[in-house]
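Regression test case RT-17, inverse folding.

Input:
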C-alpha cells in the first residue's frame, strides 16, 4: 500500500510540475503578445547594441556618414587628377583650323606673272566671186545674170582705195552693171575687151576697206542682141589704186549663146 501511495505521489508531483511549466509558458506568451513585439524581435533588439558596436568599429573613413535623421549618406569620392571629366552632352565639335595660304613674296609674284600673249597670226586681203551655177550663162537679147564680189580684209593693213576691174577677151555687145545701194539703181561699169593686161597705174578711184572688214558688191551682166556667141572667162582684178598695184585676182566662167 505504501508503495502504491509513493508512486501516486510521485506522479502527482510530476503532473503538478508540468502544469506549472505550461502555465508559465502561457503567461510569457501572453505578455509578449500584449506588448506588440514578437519573440524574435525581442531577441534581435537585445542583440542590436552588440551588432551596432561591431558595425561602427568596422567602418572605414570612406564609409557612409550617418545624417541627423538617421539615414546613411554616402559621400561621393572626388575624382583624382588623372580622371578626365566626361564631355558635356551639348558640347559642339571643335572646328578644324583654317590655314591661310602664304602670301607670295615679290620674287614669286614676278615669277607667277603670265607670259606675254603672242601676236595674232597675220591674215591678208582676199576676194571671192559667186554666182548661181558657178558661172555666167547668157542668151543674146535675154535677161541679165547676177554675181557678187566679196572683199574680206585681214589684220595686216588697211586700204584706202580698192577698185575691182573687169575684162573679157573678144566678145562684143556685153553690158556690165553694179548695184548702187545709195540710189537703189543699177549703174554701168567699164568692161575692157582685150587680150592684153591693163596696167594698174592707169586705174583711178576706189573705196576704203578697214582692218578685218568685209564688203560685198552686187553685179550683173547681159548680152545684147545682134552680137556673137561663144565661151570666155570674165577676168576680175582688184587694184590698190593708192599703191598702183594688183592685190587680188579671180575669173568667172562665161558663155554667151544665140537665142
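Golden output:
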Amino acid at each position: 500500500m505504501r508503495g502504491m501511495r509513493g508512486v501516486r505521489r510521485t506522479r502527482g508531483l510530476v503532473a503538478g510540475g508540468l502544469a506549472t511549466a505550461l502555465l508559465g509558458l502561457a503567461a510569457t506568451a501572453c505578455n509578449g503578445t500584449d506588448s506588440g513585439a514578437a519573440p524574435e524581435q525581442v531577441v534581435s533588439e537585445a542583440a542590436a547594441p552588440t551588432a551596432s558596436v561591431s558595425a561602427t568599429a568596422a567602418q572605414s573613413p570612406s564609409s557612409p556618414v550617418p545624417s541627423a535623421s538617421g539615414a546613411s549618406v554616402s559621400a561621393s569620392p572626388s575624382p583624382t587628377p588623372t580622371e578626365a571629366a566626361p564631355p558635356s552632352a551639348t558640347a559642339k565639335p571643335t572646328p578644324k583650323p583654317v590655314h591661310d595660304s602664304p602670301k607670295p613674296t615679290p620674287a614669286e609674284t614676278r615669277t607667277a606673272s603670265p607670259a606675254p600673249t603672242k601676236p595674232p597670226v597675220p591674215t591678208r586681203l582676199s576676194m571671192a566671186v559667186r554666182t548661181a551655177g558657178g558661172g555666167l550663162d547668157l542668151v543674146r537679147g535675154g535677161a541679165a545674170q547676177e554675181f557678187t564680189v566679196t572683199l574680206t580684209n585681214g589684220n595686216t593693213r588697211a586700204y584706202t582705195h580698192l577698185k575691182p576691174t573687169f575684162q573679157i577677151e573678144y566678145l562684143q555687145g556685153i553690158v556690165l552693171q553694179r548695184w548702187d545701194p545709195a540710189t537703189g539703181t543699177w549703174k554701168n561699169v567699164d568692161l575692157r575687151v582685150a587680150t592684153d593686161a591693163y596696167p594698174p597705174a592707169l586705174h583711178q578711184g576706189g573705196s576704203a576697206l578697214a582692218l578685218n572688214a568685209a564688203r560685198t558688191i552686187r553685179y550683173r551682166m547681159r548680152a545684147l542682141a545682134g552680137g556673137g556667141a561663144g565661151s570666155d572667162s570674165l577676168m576680175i582684178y582688184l587694184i590698190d589704186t593708192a599703191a598702183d598695184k594688183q592685190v587680188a585676182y579671180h575669173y568667172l566662167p562665161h558663155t554667151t549663146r544665140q537665142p
